[in-house]
Amino acid sequence: MKKYFPSFLLMFFLTAAVSVAQTADISPQRKQAIDSLALEKVKDLSKYISIIGSKETQFSEANRVMDRAEELFAPAAEMGVSSVNTRDVAYYKVRRYFERLMALNYDRVNISWYDIHYISDLERQPDGRYVGVVTVYQRFEGTSQEAGLNYRDTTKKDITIYVERKSTQVAGRTIEFWDVMLGDIRVTETSA
Amino acid sequence: MRKITLLILLIISSIQLTPGQGLYSPGSPADDGKFAASTKQVNQFFRRFNAEESQDGKKRYYDTDTQYRDRDLRKSFINILFDNETSGIARELKVAFTSDVIAEDNPQFLNFHGQNWFAEVNTVFTYRGKKENVTLFMKLQPEGLGYEWVIDKVSFDPFKAYFDKDTGTKKQFLHPLSHELDFMNLRKAFQENPKPESYTATDYEPDYLTLFLYEIKRGNFKFENVTDLKFHFFQIDNWYFELAQFNRPGFNTGWLISNLVKLNEGDREAVLKYIYDQK
After folding, report:
1. Could you say which of A8, A34, A191, B240 has the lowest number of CB atoms within 10 Å?
2. pTM metric for this prediction
3. Residue B17 lies in a domain
4. For the structural domain made of A2-189, what CATH number should be given?
5. Which residues of B touch A47 (CB under 8 A)?
6. Where is the signal peptide (chain A) (predicted)?
7. Where are the domains of chain A?
8. pLDDT averages per 10-residue partition of chain B, 279 residues
9. Distance (Å, rounded) from C-alpha B212 to C-alpha B153?
10. Nearest neighbour of A116 by CB, restricted to B31, B249, B253
């Protein structure tokens, strides 16, 4: 929570500077600030996935990181995973997806992320929250020495973000800020 | 001064000790341009089509930006928004479409919240114990404080077989003086008759969506999967195009125009009828 405090402050000042009353449209400046916060969460998720997948991570540490990773998500978020060979999508709860990642049968796993992302516009839902999608690309490399197996793939991850205006009390004053939670993630294996 | 030095050292050391390899970590694999070129989201298709983002996709243009909806930028974007590998859309057709879309006197833009575009979602359901393909046609509608996708129509082959009504002399009917006999012939019409639809009006249209929802509520349909997705656009005057996703090696990937049709009078209804495949 502490690490996001500067972002909250930034968001607060931007909010105050732009308008007191909340309007349906998010200004470009505010959108940019929300994008930054969303990207921070996605970066955290990417880091956590790399740690959970790594064979050098202790079991207890992986579980701790899974807890942290789960905190990034809105309740009931799911991962929908498909490969190049099948059009079927396998659906996993976020925790289950992490557990499967941790249990992969490789001696060595390296998960890295391409230096590119794409953030959609934010659209308002019927309940007033905003929703967007952040796209990132992940490279997975798994090595199994016994079987002499080297597996490598690149997946596109389309990550739902929910953006909500919240308020908190600080020293008797109500401070409003924009909060970002991650939602469902569609994982598609690419042909790249 | 010592405190500041200590703080700087602390910050540097914490950066170096950051575990894992997250997004934009040192050593992240570099995109060779393929992911940047790919139209990664339908949202990006809209932005590129309307020239509402920079060529490298890193900057979103708003109406206060000079490059916003720039004609030359649009032209270069639209050129890369066609599937150039498999769809076989004639070059002349693409040129005519592009020139209509970016016409100086009447440029046309796509509108996410506008009418005249919808999604075709191919799904698999288990229907009475057997896996079956079901096509859902979805549209965006305003609701509450925002928008939502809703199911507008459904296409399911077994339903169509339910409503196979004969016409003319072969058709079963209730004769025109049935009313004089208190419609006693309804007994023959409904008992052990596989075609009760024969007794409906000429303009009767079965509502497959209602039937589909009823069957779901009865527990006869169980959702399995989404297998494919495409979009149909009728937002550009006198043109129809289809948007599909291409996951393949190379630079011509992502959400691209996979079909393009110049519409003459009456064509729109014919294309819609073909897409909806209701009969």
Report:
1. A191
2. 0.87
3. no
4. 3.10.450.50
5. 18-23, 25
6. 1-21
7. 2-189
8. 52 43 81 93 98 94 96 96 94 97 97 97 95 97 97 94 86 95 94 89 94 96 96 98 96 97 95 84
9. 10
10. B31
